[in-house]
């Protein structure tokens, strides 16, 4: 039965990993894989995470199922982290948290819920967007559409975005990146979030907000501005949250689907349906990552350590963005790549062409996605001079 099954190309980013490993260039640089790295190129385990795991190992008494919605203790800490302490949405009991296998799992839960409960709605994503968005939603049976986000000059095309949103059919779903837009790094300002809110309200659109990088842009609360605005001003919002980046627990697959409804009764109705969707997908989410997050955020001491570590990671990335542009100044390229310092999060749409990316890989051992998307966390003060020299050579 398998003889007619064809081989398909592997994931482009995973292919970069293999090519990078085989490269013998001692100065090679990996800017492809989307994980945080320190100045030595490692993805460390946060101290708060290690201490939380030690406590879990000591105190854990069972490995039983945690239920389709996950551990209640996890939802108790994620909801205020995302929606804010003292949130009117939480006070009105309008929000429900469902622990999921990573942010990707939360997106798939949302996609299946929309396909089953809101049939006929298309979903609109930014152009460009995280590549896996292009797979997750069609796999759930949804029709995927795009709205413009970056123009030909590699700048945020907010006017184009807003004009396109005004043409979306009423009732459709629009996916928005809360912060640290992947892959571009271009984020909306607070004023732009208000303009998007007005269009979403006028068109009766359902916002699905992908919140994968809370704390990696400007701060935990600052990065949540658009999410909280939408949740407080609209009757219905879907939010997908991830702890992979801000807790550094990529392999633990820890995310959350947050459903916001008009009132508590409607929220409970929606919550009952989400439980079925989760049950049909994977029954129960993995428990360990959520237990780590819960242990940290329920402890004032560990939460303080975690916030300090997260601030250090965020500040390092933002500093490297500025230092990268500064390193290009001798070659007269600082203005051309000034956008890198303006962007936020781990990723940057550098403006490098596919041909330039190929040359950087083949001639200098510098690896990034052919769209020109670079993982800024792969920069270091040691490799910045080499990166600047190589980029100047291919320009």
UniProtKB/TrEMBL annotation:
TM spans (from-to): none
Pfam families in the cross-refs: Aminotran_1_2 (PF00155)
Location of the Aminotransferase class I/classII large domain: 27-391
Cofactor dependency: pyridoxal 5'-phosphate
Gene3D superfamilies the UniProt entry points to: Aspartate Aminotransferase, domain 1 (3.90.1150.10), Type I PLP-dependent aspartate aminotransferase-like (Major domain) (3.40.640.10)
Family: Belongs to the class-I pyridoxal-phosphate-dependent aminotransferase family.
NCBIfam families, alphabetized: PRK09257.1
Subunit record text: Homodimer.
Protein name: Aspartate/tyrosine/aromatic aminotransferase
Provenance organism: Halomonas gemina
